[in-house]
Amino acid sequence: MIKGKKIGIKKKETKAKKEVIMKYLDTLSLSEEEMKAEKNGDCSICEEPYDSWGHNADPVSKGRCCEHCNVTIVWPKRLEG
Ligand SMILES: [Zn+2]
Fold first, then answer.
1. What spacing in Å lies between the alpha carbon of 31 and ligand 1's midpoint?
2. Which one of 6, 7, 28, 35 has the fewest CB atoms closer than 10 angstroms to its CB?
């Protein structure tokens, strides 16, 4: 009886955690169109090609940027507010 109750609670908790993780992954995931369009693109700031996904260039530029611009331009801009 007690054992069954414990398992019931555990299952519920696991489901809730899973939902939180799925919601979090949803915010990270790109649509299929975005993936095709953005992978291995050109940096929207310095126009050099970047590998893989690049970085979000907001608020410096719309679109994505390379690792270098992300660290030297986008991050400082974000810290400025
Ligand atoms: Zn760049």
1. 23
2. 28
